[in-house]
TrEMBL record, chain A:
Function: Essential component of the cytosolic iron-sulfur (Fe/S) protein assembly machinery. Required for the maturation of extramitochondrial Fe/S proteins.
Gene Ontology CC terms, in alphabetical order: cytosolic [4Fe-4S] assembly targeting complex
The keyword Repeat is annotated on this UniProt entry: yes
Name of protein: Probable cytosolic iron-sulfur protein assembly protein CIAO1 homolog
SUPFAM superfamilies: WD40 repeat-like
UniProtKB/TrEMBL annotation, chain B:
Descriptive protein name: MIP18 family-like domain-containing protein
UniProt keyword terms in alphabetical order: Chromosome partition
Family: Belongs to the MIP18 family.
The organism's place on the tree of life at top rank: Eukaryota
Species of provenance: Populus davidiana
Length: 347, 159
């Protein structure tokens, strides 16, 4: 029996979290707190909130509000792999690094350099690099030094418009960026400390025809999903064999395009460890996809597993799977709310 | 402006007569939700002042009632505006004013698309893309100079 048979899954709304006083742009689960989950959210209200689950009730509450540091919208946030540091990227052109010092979050470093709005921040798998991107069209790679020092290792130029998101590959030190210029760029180090664009995924190689807002990798790291203002999701694949041998330059190829599922801009996509792709869009809806392994005649394809219209009252800006065993998803919206969902199997 | 206006001599059109909405007849449920229509949306934006002239967008025919599409059932509005000149660098400011005014006037459930009329602007697709990228709009609305400019254009529309 197919575990994910259509109609076999149900999306339960667990909790709605209120507190932000403006649009909630993004959220990040702390990867080191799988047993008692913690996540951070950031907003147009210029604050970051830390949410923690109470073990007895299994409900989340706001544990801390990080404010009076960023002077404009906080657009994105990311935990270091150890879960000890939180990086926050703001329209105020800075990226702040926060450390949990005996229960209190303190801003221990501020990264300056971008000319204007910083839109996204991402840590590599080992926590030795941080990447940021901005409306100034550049991507910066920062080397994490002892004592909460961050040194700019490279300024990457190549995108012709704002860079919407940066994301490190889950296992290799290869960086991906997506942009208002409709492309995804792949950046790798050449062995001498210099970083270069090794591939551009654009409309000419089956890429997107409008702004690419987000991307996410599967657990193995050999597939990537991207989402766009062109109302499609695209799946890309690389040669896992070459990747295992440490070839940073293994090219990514278009595998398939999922279209017709959202009817306004798709802002966020996230691939769960067990292979379920969640997407959230400006049509206020959530969609879940899974690889269709029935007929491989025409090559791999993905099918819709479940959908939820009106998951929020306004645009959905971010969807993120939790790190724990239960299939928890958090979504953030323009309505100022965060919702926690559980994708459960009907028994 | 020392450098001169982008369109120094715009054509001014007469304002359309304001239609008075008929009061609901006796017996109607006064709490019934009245659907939002084209005229209501037009009323929200007709008095927005042009960024460089002391005239309203209606008087300059930048917007007309016919250029507004409303689908109340699907909570959707599309406003198509016509810049007075093809190279109008004020097009994005006008678009921003329209977006802000509708954001403040319509219920939250509404989705709004703003675009320039096809063939009326030299960089039509770039302007449209910018006006409909909410991240860029959000960033623009944190820029005090732009906000002042938008507020000045919106001031008469509250009258």
């Amino acid at each position: 029996m197919d575990f994910y048979d259509d109609g076999n899954m149900i999306l339960k709304e667990i909790q709605t979290l209120e507190g932000h006083t403006d649009r909630v742009w993004s959220l990040a689960w702390n990867p080191a707190t799988a047993t008692s989950p913690v996540f951070a959210s950031c907003s147009g209200d210029k604050t970051v909130r830390i949410w923690e689950q109470t073990p007895s009730t299994r409900l989340w509450h706001c544990k801390a509000v990080l404010e009076e540091t960023h002077t404009r919208t906080v657009r994105s946030c990311a935990w270091s792999p150890s879960g000890k540091l939180l990086a926050t990227a703001s329209f105020d052109a800075t990226t702040s690094i926060w450390e949990n010092i005996s229960g209190d979050f303190e801003c221990v470093s501020t990264l300056e350099g971008h000319e204007n709005e910083v839109k996204s921040v991402s840590w590599n798998a080992s926590g030795s690099f941080l990447a940021t991107c901005s409306r100034d069209k550049t991507v910066w790679i920062w080397e994490v030094m002892p004592g909460n020092e961050f040194e700019c290792a490279s300024v990457l130029q190549g995108h012709t418009q704002d860079v919407k998101m940066v994301k490190w590959h889950p296992t290799m030190d290869v960086l991906f960026s997506c942009s208002y210029d409709n492309t995804v760029k792949v950046w790798a180090e050449d062995g001498t400390g210099d970083w270069h664009c090794v591939q551009t995924l654009g409309e000419s190689n089956n890429g997107h025809s409008s702004t690419v807002w987000a991307l996410s990798f599967n657990a193995e790291g050999d597939r990537m999903v991207t989402c766009s203002d062109d109302l499609t999701l695209k799946i890309w694949e690389t040669d896992v064999g070459r990747m295992v041998l440490g070839d940073d330059h293994a090219p990514w190829n278009h595998l398939c395009t999922l279209s017709g599922y959202h009817d306004r801009t798709i802002f966020s996509v996230h691939w769960s460890r067990e292979g379920i792709i969640a997407s959230g869009a400006a049509d206020d809806g959530l969609r879940f996809f899974l690889e269709n392994k029935d007929g491989l005649v025409d090559g791999p394809s993905y099918k819709l597993l479940l959908k939820r219209e009106k998951a929020h009252n306004m645009d959905i800006n971010s969807v993120q799977w939790g790190p724990g065993e239960t299939r928890l998803l958090a979504s953030t919206s323009d309505d100022g709310k965060i919702k926690i969902w559980e994708l459960a199997t009907l028994t | 402006m020392v450098s001169g206006l982008i369109n120094a001599n715009p054509v001014i059109y007469e304002k359309k007569e304001r239609r008075v909405r008929s009061a609901p007849s006796v017996g109607d449920d006064e709490h019934a939700v009245e659907p939002i229509d084209q005229l209501e949306v037009f009323d929200h934006i007709r008095d927005i002042k042009d960024p460089e002239h002391p005239y309203s967008l209606e008087e300059l025919k930048v917007i007309t009632e016919d250029a507004i599409e409303v689908d109340d059932n699907h909570s959707y509005v599309r406003v198509t505006f016509t810049p007075t000149v093809e190279h109008c660098s004020m097009a994005t400011v006008i678009g921003l004013c329209l977006r802000v005014k509708l954001m403040r006037s319509l219920p939250q459930r509404y989705k709004v698309d703003i675009r320039v009329a096809p063939g009326t602007h030299a960089t039509e697709s770039a302007v449209n893309k910018q006006l409909n990228d909410k991240e860029r709009v959000a960033a623009a609305l944190e820029n005090p100079n732009l906000v002042d400019m938008v507020d000045e254009c919106l001031a008469p529309s509250y009258a």
